[in-house]
Design goal:
GO molecular function: DNA binding; sigma factor activity
CATH superfamily of the largest domain: Winged helix-like DNA-binding domain superfamily/Winged helix DNA-binding domain
CATH architecture of the largest domain: Orthogonal Bundle
Organism: Thalassospira povalilytica
Mean pLDDT: 80
Strand content: under 5%
Order of helices and strands: HHHHHHHH
CATH class of the largest domain: Mainly Alpha
Low-confidence stretches: 72-79
Oligomer: single chain
Family: Belongs to the sigma-70 factor family. ECF subfamily.
InterPro entries: RNA_pol_sigma-70-like (IPR039425), RNA_pol_sigma-70_dom (IPR014284), RNA_pol_sigma70_r2 (IPR007627), RNA_pol_sigma70_r4_t2 (IPR013249), RNA_pol_sigma_r2 (IPR013325), RNA_pol_sigma_r3/r4-like (IPR013324), WH-like_DNA-bd_sf (IPR036388)
Number of strands: 0
Protein name: RNA polymerase subunit sigma-24
């Protein structure tokens, strides 16, 4: 318990997210507790730091991989448009067909794939959150999102 704030700071410095760092420290403690049952560990603090470091690096790698695979289109532009910023008629006409095609492509997807794709792309949900919501594994959530994006790209004729 005495090392907890230092461990959270350490994990946060690696992954850049204090909330996730707190979760990692909790996970590290659970792993440490399980590994040390019935044994005396000479350098328990060092071992705990090593577990935190490994979990943080794994998390950072997973997030980077997730961004590489599913981050081809930046939807933040869409998310940051305020209701007062109504697009001009030319923009509406220009993207109306693409929007209709995208909605049709999403409707063609199996339900779980569509939900996973919409949660990730439009809701900004992480794969962990999608997996929890759909009660599936994180790798399956990753596959569903990637399959949904690939399907939409094909329907839009190679749209990025």
């Amino acid at each position: 318990m005495r090392q907890r704030p230092a461990l959270v700071n350490y994990a946060s410095s690696i992954i850049g997210n204090r909330v996730l760092a707190e979760d990692l420290v909790q996970e590290a403690w659970l792993r440490f507790d399980e590994a040390s049952k019935g044994r005396f560990l000479e350098d328990a603090t060092g071992y705990l730091y090593r577990i935190v470091r490994n979990l943080a690096l794994d998390s950072k790698r997973r997030d980077a991989q997730e961004s590489r695979v599913t981050g081809a289109v930046d939807y933040e532009v869409i998310a940051n448009i305020s209701p007062a910023q109504t697009p001009d008629p030319e923009t509406i006409v220009l993207y109306k067909d693409d929007y209709a095609t995208l909605m049709q492509a999403l409707a063609e997807l199996p339900e779980r794939t569509r939900i996973a794709c919409e949660m990730h792309r439009f809701g900004g949900a992480k794969l962990r959150e999608i997996a929890e919501f759909l009660d599936i594994s994180v790798p399956l959530a990753h596959k569903l999102v990637a399959d949904g994006i690939d399907h939409c790209r094909e329907r839009l004729g190679g749209w990025p």
